[in-house]
Write a structure and sequence with these properties.
The protein is an alpha+beta fold. 19% of the residues lie in helices and 26% in strands. The strands form two sheets. The protein has a six-stranded mixed beta sheet with strand order 3-4-2-1-12-11, covered by helices on one side. The longest helix is centred in the middle third of the chain and has 20 residues. The N and C termini lie far apart (70 Å).
Length: 345
């Protein structure tokens, strides 16, 4: 009798944990707040202006779900893509003003206006027009000043297809220095175009900029929706390992052996350019195939013991939320302050 009872209680306990976690993990190799190192990171394409995410009409549910995911993971850094400005204000104000754990925030606009952002109007019945800007956001655990906004940079990424008349959306790289578990870190966030010609050029530019920060001695956290799969040659400038790699980064979900598929990624390896799917037909009927396209990259010289997994579909976005964790490679602290680079002046 003991064995069936123990199995039942174990299953019941697991189900309770999943129900309590908000955006729960999608696979058996769950990385939990109990076993993950620190610092911890989240990247999430929140689908702020897309018609495919009509659940955003319920602003309170969106806020509760995203806040719950951040708190469950005890995230130190959160990087959001496809964010409407009023949507960002809603989350920023809530996380900055609540009792307990608070977050500082930075914003970068990719577009000056997008019509569907009107659904985030905080009071549709007043006479004040909502701010319709659309872009990226970074959140860092801590009060005002946790993010050094004097270091904030917004780089517009190359758009080779503009010359061909292909309609494209501006793509940017948003970066800022922040205190993360007591250390100074450069956080960067991006959303790469899905068009092949732009994609290659934009990933290369992101790699160039962030490599410059890393070579200056800064710990780097780079997250976002890259619209590309791990083994593609476009990703070579980012990864520090794997065939053709020339980069300085490791990725949080690169050691999940459930995703090692043989070939150049056998089970005997310790790391592989792979990871759980972050875009899937389960999250959106408009998604045509399952793929890993969202990433959290960490500079290899500063971080170790990376961990990561994708959350289950939440109903508030058409991507899986990706969460990651790592330990510091060394007890030595990077400088709390240093002479600003030309990019910061």
């Amino acid at each position: 009798m003991r064995t069936p009872l123990r199995a039942f209680l174990t299953t019941l306990f697991s189900v309770c944990l999943l129900l309590a976690s908000g955006l729960t993990t999608a696979r058996a190799d769950e990385v939990t707040p109990a076993n993950a190192p620190k610092p911890r990171f989240i990247t999430y394409n929140v689908c702020g202006a897309s018609k495919t995410c009509d659940s955003h009409n319920d602003k309170a549910k969106w806020l509760a779900d995203v806040t719950g995911a951040i708190d469950h993971w005890e995230a130190d850094v959160v990087m959001l893509q496809e964010v409407c400005y009023e949507q960002w204000k809603l989350l920023r104000t809530h996380l900055a003003g609540r009792s307990g754990t608070t977050y500082d925030a930075a914003w970068g606009a990719a577009l000056p206006s997008i019509g569907n952002c009107a659904r985030w109007d905080p009071d549709p019945h007043d006479s004040v027009a909502p701010d319709l800007r659309f872009g990226l956001a970074i959140l860092a655990k801590g009060g005002p000043g946790t993010l050094d906004l004097t270091s904030r940079t917004v780089d517009f990424l190359p758009e080779p297809l503009e010359a061909t008349g292909t309609a494209t959306e501006n793509r940017i790289l948003l970066c800022a220095k922040s205190t993360v578990t007591g250390r100074t870190v450069r956080i960067c966030n991006t959303h790469i175009d899905w068009h092949a010609g732009n994609k290659t050029a934009q990933i290369a530019k992101v790699a160039q900029i962030t490599r410059g920060f890393a070579e200056a001695g800064e710990p780097i956290v780079l997250g976002g929706d890259f619209n590309q799969t791990p083994k593609h040659a476009d990703m070579n400038p980012l990864y520090s390992h794997g065939a053709g790699s020339t980069g300085v980064f490791q990725e949080v979900d690169e050691n999940d052996k459930d995703e090692f598929r043989g070939g150049d990624c056998p089970q005997t390896k310790d790391q592989c350019r792979s990871g759980e799917n972050t875009a899937s037909t389960a999250c959106s009927p408009h998604t045509t195939e399952n793929a890993k396209i969202d990433y959290i990259f960490l500079s290899s010289s500063w971080f170790t013991t990376v961990r990561g997994d994708a959350a289950a579909c939440s109903g508030v976005a058409d991507h899986h939320l990706l969460r990651g964790a790592a330990a510091w490679e060394s007890q030595e602290l990077p400088p709390a302050s240093q002479e600003p680079s030309a990019r910061d002046r």
